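Quick question, first post here. What does this chain look like in 3D?
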Amino acid sequence: MKIRFTAKSVFGLGIVLFQSAALAQTPDYPTKPIRIITHAAPGSSPDINARILGERIGAATGHSVIVKNRSGASGTIALAAVAKAPPDGYTLGTITMSHAVAPALVARMPYDTALDLAPVRQTTQGPLFLVVGADSPWQSVSKLIAAAKAQPGRLNYASAGNATPLHLFGELFKARTGTDIRHIPYKGAVPAAASLLGQQVDLLSTSGIAAVAHIRAGKLRALATASPQRALVLPKVRRSTN
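> Answer (accepted):
Ran it through. Tokens below.
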């Protein structure tokens, strides 16, 4: 069976690929449910993307698709499960750019990124944002940088976890601006956003899907996006390169 998938644009967490140990070769594939193992927490960009794609696969094949969440360890827990699954095309996985940097950040990789997984296709790409609370005194990135430099190590930012794209974006921002802002990792983009809403942190490095509703509701304010162009979902937010 030939199946053609159309990439659906959602507010994603960077680039997402679907992987499996090998593609099924039998002409009657699939004959049973397919698993998608996502490295992200429920409600996050990769999780929602996986469920959207699962619905598309199910509609195209007539077979159910089960999405399982196995977050943690920079996504290596989920991909280890994919790598260890039978190479029959019934187990797929989601990745972001964390997959590319994990070997440099994780001491003992449970799989070989080059040999144990096969890329299928890119499904989404989406913006990352630097966000503050609606009542924050910082109305621009320049004012945030000035405040951070005036009190090194006093400000903090939340992300979806260590070695996630959101963490790397935050660290890149610090490196490019010469600021000292403490990183507070959470177990997913949703609890990270909740921490900013609850005023437990000063700012947030996040994906659009985790924060756009709060931004549109006036509860949070986006200072900048890491996208090369302004994000379609929040076109008034300036690029961080500005």
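Residues 1-24 have pLDDT under 50 and may be disordered.
Residues 128-225 form a domain with the D-Maltodextrin-Binding Protein; domain 2 fold (CATH 3.40.190.10).
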